[in-house]
Design brief:
Radius of gyration: 15 Å
CATH topology: Alpha-Beta Plaits
Number of helices: 3
Strand order of the largest sheet: 2-3-1-4
Largest sheet: 4 strands, antiparallel
Strand content: 35-45%
Order of helices and strands: EHEEHEH
CATH architecture: 2-Layer Sandwich
Length: 113
């Protein structure tokens, strides 16, 4: 069963990349420690092929899968920018349309301001 959230507490999944495991872990620890995220999964060895400043790049990165809530996204984005070494860090935020009610409630509780 899906949990129905209160206004602003709707769960979100945010995707970001980091250049290596150490930086990804530092970002994840800060976001979780500051209650901007309930959880961040680090997926190593993601191959990213992208266009940057007129060139096609091919790099290995670490993917962060970050669980948060809608009303924490702006603060999470600001903090990610301050922690991240990239000029333009990746951050894509997706709505969560379903899930186990206790897990979704946990996300909300762990990221409450």
């Amino acid at each position: 069963m899906v949990a129905m959230s209160t206004e602003g507490a709707e769960p979100r999944v945010a995707l970001a990349t980091a250049p290596d495991a150490e930086i990804a872990a530092r970002i994840a620890h800060a976001l979780v420690g500051e209650r901007l995220a309930a959880c961040a999964n680090l997926v190593p060895q993601v191959r990213s092929i992208y266009r940057w400043q007129g060139r096609v790049e091919d790099d290995t990165e670490v993917l962060l899968v970050i669980k948060t809530r809608a009303d924490r996204v702006a603060a999470l984005a600001d903090r990610l920018r301050s922690l991240h070494p990239y000029e333009t860090p990746e951050l894509v935020v997706l709505p969560v349309v379903g899930g186990l009610a206790p897990y979704l409630a946990w996300i909300g509780a762990e990221t409450a301001p």
